[in-house]
Fold this protein.
Amino acid sequence: MLKIYFAPFARSLRALWTLEEMGAPYEAVRVQFPPRAAQPDYLAVNPLGQIPTMVEGDVVIFESMAICEYVADRFGPTDLQVKAGEAGRGDYLQWLWYGEATLMPPVGTMVRNALGPAEGRDPKVLADARAAVLERLVLVEQALEGKAFLAAERFTLADISVAYALNLGTLLQLAPDYSPAVAAYFERMKARPAFQAAMAKA
Ligand SMILES: N[C@@H](CCC(=O)N[C@@H](CS)C(=O)NCC(=O)O)C(=O)O
């Protein structure tokens, strides 16, 4: 059975959410966070000690959005993906990657500087990262103008990618600063039964 190594609020939420959307069978294995310090035996599964990791047979993936794509391929076909040649494919790729490559770096800086060990916190770095996240969310707001979803006029993995970052923002007291459109979008994402099922596990 496909295994997902997860920790609460970690990017494993994206993988669990995708599996729940697809009704796919899986085993969720909880890892103590941060694994390097709290669960060194996990390094045998993922040498970087990062979460999530997916293992199915001899397939091992430790990039959250790659896991989502793998799961969609493995248990699909599914409307969660926008395939090559389909309308909305460009938007799909844009937001699928934006969630991890553009939104998550400053969110990660915020996590370290707001929630990490006290000696590693710098209020100026935190404020700069916060400003960067909010600036980057303006593009999300613009992309949502007149739309319920980021790509192809339906819920896709691109929404899972971006909404995960929004969800982590709640831990960072960012949510009160989301624009009305982004806040409404985030509410729509949280209302999905699969999101709630994934949150209940993670
Ligand atoms: N790009 C990777 C990033 C994975 C990542 O940074 N995971 C975090 C939790 S969300 C982690 O394990 N941090 C602990 C560490 O890096 O030691 C992905 O999308 O899966």
Notes: Residues 9 and 65 are 15 Å apart (CA to CA).
